[in-house]
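Box 3.1 A note on notation
Throughout this textbook, protein chains are presented in two layers. The first layer is the amino acid sequence; the second is a token string describing backbone geometry. Keep the layers aligned when reading.
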Amino acid sequence: MRCNEFSQLSLLLLKVRFWHSETLSGLGIKLQESSTHCHLAMVSAVKRLIRSFHGGVNAPQLTKFALRRPHCVEVEFVDGHVFNLSSEFLRVYSPAADSKTRFIGVEKVIFGRRHVGIMSAEPIGNYGVRLLFDDLHKTGIYTWDYFYHLGSNKFSLMRNYIKTLKKYGLSRDPRSK
């Protein structure tokens, strides 16, 4: 599956809403009548499906990883692609769920992260890194394939993110206290 097909499928799955009791074929999840149960089951199913695609992206081999603390990560691949990924972008598209995420319907919406920084990167095996952000988020493991996917689709992903924020009246800027 190509990166852009993966992105389109991810977006489509996140926009699907289940209001009735159904079985998600192939995933073996029975959705309950309650919207809360439906929501949680759908989110769980989408996460499993997305994780299954991460391994299938077949990104070229990584040749360089550089943390430009606190603002960005630079990754370079053997095919010559170089991606500079901002800390905000990486935080918003973290492959992990956390308590600072707002779910509106089935959409994962992280907001107020314009000025988030990356404090460190911890190697995980030979396939990725765990990034520690200054908002103390540290549970996502970014695989090299996932970096390639993010870099290849950076502009459309960011455009979709900004559209989602506008749709729900949210901002990239942190709330003032």
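The CA atoms of residues 7 and 156 lie 9 Å apart. The radius of gyration is 17 Å.
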